[in-house]
Design goal:
This protein is mainly alpha-helical. Helix content is 82%, strand content 0%. It contains two helices and no strands. α1 packs antiparallel against α2. It is elongated and about 45 Å long.
């Protein structure tokens, strides 16, 4: 079994964490009818997807 570099493990933990936070903020924004929270959550989800797509180990 090969070991992965530390940066690869960090990205693999960061992407799901960013997606969960983005989903939570998006849900809170929708529930509170706060457009700025909704926008921040959507951008966090977009960032998680872009990092996942771009980072190919």
């Amino acid at each position: 079994m090969t070991t992965r570099p530390r940066s690869d493990r960090t990205v693999r933990r960061t992407v799901p964490a960013l997606a969960v936070v983005g989903l939570g903020v998006t849900t809170a924004g929708a529930a509170l009818d706060a457009m700025w929270l909704l926008g921040m959550g959507v951008w966090a989800l977009i960032a998680a997807m872009v990092i996942d797509i771009v980072h190919q180990p």
